[in-house]
Amino acid sequence: MRRITLIIISLLLIVGCIKESNYDDSFRYRLVVDGRIEQGRNAIVMLSQSMPYMSSYDKDTFRKLAIWSAKVTIFHGDKHEVLTGRSDTHYPTGYIYEGYEILGEVGESYAIEIEYDGRTWRSEGTILPAIELKDIKVIDEGDDKYSIRATLPPTQYPCSIDCSLDGGPYYAPTLLGTYPPSEYEREIVINRPTDKLIRNDYNTLFNRSDKVLLRVNTLTDFAYDYWRGWEDNFINSINPVFPSTSNLPTNISNRGMGIWAGYGTSYTKVVRN
Predict the structure, then answer these.
(1) Which residues lie closer than 8 Å to 78 by C-beta, 6 or more apart?
(2) In a domain, 273, yes or no
(3) What are phi and psi of 65, to 5 degrees?
(4) 117 in any annotated domain
(5) pLDDT tens-digit profile of 160-185?
(6) 34 and 94, same domain (yes or no)
(7) Above 50 in pLDDT, residue 10?
(8) How many angstroms separate the CA atoms of 20 and 94, rounded?
(9) Would you say 224 and 180 are in contact if contact means Cβ atoms under 8 Å apart?
(10) Among 2, 26, 197, 199, which residue has the least CB neighbours within 10 Å?
(11) Sign of the CA dihedral 53, 58, 59, 65?
(12) Per-residue pLDDT band at 44 (split at 50, 70, 90)
């Protein structure tokens, strides 16, 4: 059965429809970016081409839409670095661009420039202070499944929670895992990551065999709008009555799609008793 991955939603949510469910050769692609830099870590960027809404798709389709020959440069103050492209099947595109020299710092802004097919795209993002989960609880739900609850501390910034079930390095958004700022503590339920939800079986519980790693991302206002919109689109796309056909906001220039952002992050390994 086809897995739902992050890139599926990023690629499919584009203005316009086609009458047939075959790829339209006349369609003019738009660049899709999913890029991030965190404090103490290097930049990682996935690039792909958009596809017409309602096109037929499978895992191989998305790998074919990945862009392997772009030049991606990150800028910070008077420093810059050309990211190195490499294959990595942990990621939905099967290929990433990764930095090795420039590390993210809280309070700093980082710009990127992407050159491909005679065109150029630019964006910029800022890293905010990290937020850490408290009082993580693992609750046995029977049938070798369990749920996870945690306390989200008061925060002046929005945040989101990503998850990996196989030790990383790719983390996907958890279902309903985007939160606005709050002056109060909140007890939250952490659901399975969206890339592990199976069509027609949207079980949000974790399996005994899952190796759960959580990542909390502190978001800028734009990143919050993007990931909240992504979340709404994801939910609506699996609703046969109200399917989503809307575009997400973007901070990629030149009619690009997707997001480049800085994130304050904290990581937690969930241990079952």
Answers:
(1) none
(2) no
(3) -80, -10
(4) yes
(5) 999 999 888 999 999 999 999 999 99
(6) yes
(7) no
(8) 27
(9) yes
(10) 26
(11) negative
(12) very high
How many domains are there within the chain? 2
Q: Report the distance separating Cα 259 and Cα 13, nearest Å.
A: 14
**Coil, helix or strand for 41?**
coil
Decide: 85 and 94 in contact? Cβ < 8 Å.
no
CA distance readout (Å), 125 to 9, 105, 138: 22, 12, 34
CA quadruple 24, 255, 43, 164: dihedral sign: negative
Q: What is the pLDDT of residues 97-109, one digit of tens each?
A: 999 999 999 999 9
User: pLDDT per residue over 118-174, tens digit each?
Assistant: 999 999 999 999 999 999 999 999 999 999 999 999 999 999 999 999 888 999 999
For the chain, the C-alpha Rg in angstroms (whole number) is: 18
Are residues 165 and 69 part of one domain? Answer: no
41 is written with which tokens? 């870590």
Whether residues 115 and 141 share a domain: the answer is no
**For residue 203, is it within any domain?**
yes
Q: Is 9 left (phi over 0), alpha (psi -120 to 50) or beta?
A: alpha
> What are the structure tokens assigned to 204, written together?
């949000």
- Return the number of other C-beta atoms located less than 10 Å from residue 101's C-beta: 13
For the domain that residue 29 is a member of, what is the CATH number?
2.60.40.10
Residue ranges making up the domain that contains 64: 6-129+219-268
Q: Is residue 1 part of a domain?
A: no
In sign, the C-alpha dihedral spanning 40, 41, 43, 46 is: negative
| Sequence-separated (6 or more) residues with CB below 8 Å from residue 26 | none
Judge contact between 122 and 256, C-beta under 8 A: no
Token pair in block for residue 119: 């065109």
